[in-house]
Specification:
- Helices cover about 20% and strands about 30% of the residues.
- By secondary structure, the protein is α+β, with helices and mostly antiparallel strands.
- The strands form 2 sheets. The protein has a 4-stranded antiparallel β-sheet. Strands 1-2-7 form a 3-stranded antiparallel β-sheet, covered by helices on one side.
- InterPro entries: Amino_acid_metab_prot_put, Lp2179-like_sf.
- This is Cysteine desulfurase.
- It comes from Streptococcus gordonii (strain Challis / ATCC 35105 / BCRC 15272 / CH1 / DL1 / V288).
């Protein structure tokens, strides 16, 4: 998956795009880790029950010049993409995803647009 300026996950209520004001230190302050190739990566386990170890892996990666990013939600192994938005059974997981993304919007990392 290539880096993009705007990402709309399937069945998600919102699309997200890179905020032009985003800075590298802002990403680091928000627990993005710099990879060996210079990209910035945030990994979170979206769990229905906290500290259960059961959930879906959210990975957000910015390229090194902060012009593009990608978002993946996978199974815990990180190998298979998962759509957490297609089922009402995943309501708590969806709320945790939106909460995390809203915090990144507040910190001027993303701009959120309703689909």
């Amino acid at each position: 998956m290539a880096f993009e300026k705007s990402v709309a996950l399937k069945d998600c209520l919102y699309s997200y795009e890179v905020n032009p004001n985003v800075k590298k230190f802002t990403l680091k302050d928000n627990t993005f880790a710099e990879t060996k190739v210079g990209n910035f990566e945030l990994t979170r386990l979206l769990e229905e029950i906290p500290n259960s170890g059961q959930g879906f892996l959210l990975k957000i990666i910015f390229n090194k010049d902060l012009s593009g990013f990608k978002i993946n939600i996978t199974d815990k192994s990180g190998l298979r993409l998962v759509n957490i938005f297609k089922s009402e059974d995943q309501k708590i997981i969806q709320q945790k995803f939106y909460f995390l993304m809203d915090s990144l919007v507040e910190r001027e990392i993303f701009i959120k647009t309703e689909q």
